[in-house]
Amino acid sequence: MTCKPHGNGDDSDSSNDSDSSGSGNGNGRGSAEDPARAGRPGDDQAAFSALLEDSAEDLYEHAPCGYLSTQLDGRIAKINTTLLDWLGYRRGDLVGRRTFADLLTVGGRLYHETHFAPLLRMQGEVSGIALELRTADGSRLPVLVTSTVKTGSDGEPLLIRTTVFDARDRRAYETELLRARRAAERERARLQRLNATLQKTLLPPTLANVPGLDVAAHYHVASTDEVGGDFYDLFPLAAGTWGFFLGDVCGKGAAAAAVTSLTRYTLRAAAVYDPDPAAVLANLNTVLNHEYSGPDPRFCTVIFGLLTPGGEEGGCRVTLAAGGHPPALLLRAEGGAGYLPTPGGQLIGVLPDAHIATTTLRLAAGDTLLLYTDGLTEAHAADGRYGDEALLEFAQALAPVTALGAVTAIRALLDTFGAGVDDDTAVLALHVPGPTRAEHR
Question: What is the DSSP letter of 145?
């Protein structure tokens, strides 16, 4: 709906209405300075177009990067103001007087002559090369350089065009990145030394000398960045008996190392108190279950054995107790090998009253008892997980063998897996010497 003004409707009224608006231009639409017109699309487009009216020469001279053109012999023919400002030279100092190579540092000139220039001649373009330019005051300007060869209609080269980007911020970033990387490498090396030292404290420096028995052991470290939880030991008890054990604490790092230390000393102390293997593991189970019964439970798998060398039958009597650990292997003097069953043995430290499996055997002359942790059987071979069956076949082909021969063969086997061994592996071998061909391995 349109509302008409009061009055006689002649032009003079309309004119008066227009004047009363304060426009002053008589058209009733407001003046050119009317703020209401600010920001209109037409005005913005006109202002933007004005910004684009720079000359090509001005764009060249004040570009955000440096430009220069050189003759084929490298003599500078043209250079923009941006690059002159960076270098601190006047145009007359460089154009027709200096070559591009003259602006480079000594190392840059050598690289330019041996790599940059030959590649440019062969390819016609070289891009993103990091160089350093020497400024008028002698300081160094890190830059990234891209050069192309301009050719004529006949394909013959005419001149070289070069674009130069200021790389000072990038170089500072790279320097800081390199510094941080070196600091991290030093810290990692320090941590690896600490881990190696801690790992040594969790293993016996030497194994006890048992009369009539050869022993050998090996600890394979999967990663130097973390302390593993595998452990083993062999030590004397009462006259004529020795205790030995091998196990694996769950997890890695400092927490696992603390459990490993507690486990080792508990096993040795418990064996002195009551050397029966089942009683030793029962005592360890009580300690771990009591100490780590909170929200972060800790447990381990372990085999504990009691050795009694000699007797009327010769050889060595062995009693084994296992708590959730892979079964030991018996490599026989007559050849072949088999697992010693310890079924039903439960993880040590999980339940208040863990079931512990036991078995007794006699090591005859030429026999070898091999204990290991699951880092060996869980290694990743070319066709998948190595596994128990593959290890049994390996042992059957190896027997008869000495303790040192068995450990040496296992070490070589672990090396074949390379990065496929992602968990530490401990190996302990006990061998009764005898006049068999096992002595030659």
Answer: E
The CA distance from 376 to 388, in Å, is: 9
Encoded tokens for 102: 């003259």
Helix (H) or strand (E) holding 93: helix 91-94
Tokens at residue 71, please? Answer: 């003759």
Q: What is the pTM of this model?
A: 0.62
CB burial of residue 48 (10 Å; 0-12, 13-18, 19+): exposed
Main-chain dihedrals φ then ψ at residue 282, nearest 5 degrees: -65, -40
Quote the CA–CA distance of 84 and 296 in Å, as a whole number: 67
Q: Tell me phi and psi for residue 221, to 5 degrees.
A: -90, 120
Reported as a single tens digit per residue, the pLDDT across 245-274 is 999 998 888 888 889 999 999 999 999 999
DSSP state letter for 296? S
Backbone angles phi, psi at 77, to 5 degrees: -105, -30
C-beta of residue 141 within 8 angstroms of C-beta of residue 104: no
Residue 113 in tokens: 């002559």
pLDDT digits (tens, 9 = 90+) for 288-326: 999 887 777 789 999 999 999 876 667 899 999 999 999
Amino acid at 378: E
Determine the pLDDT at residue 289: 92
Q: pLDDT at position 10, please? A: 45
The CB density around residue 226, as the number of other CB atoms within 10 Å, is: 19
* Residue 116 CB partners (closer than 8 Å, separation 6+): 126, 129, 131, 145, 147
Q: What is the pLDDT of residue 49?
A: 64
Q: From CA 148, how far away is CA 193, in angstroms rounded?
A: 52
Q: Which helix (H) or strand (E) holds 339?
A: strand 337-339
Report whether 328 contacts 369 (CB < 8 A): yes
Which residues, at least 6 apart from 135, have a Cβ–Cβ distance to it below 8 Å? 86, 87, 88, 141
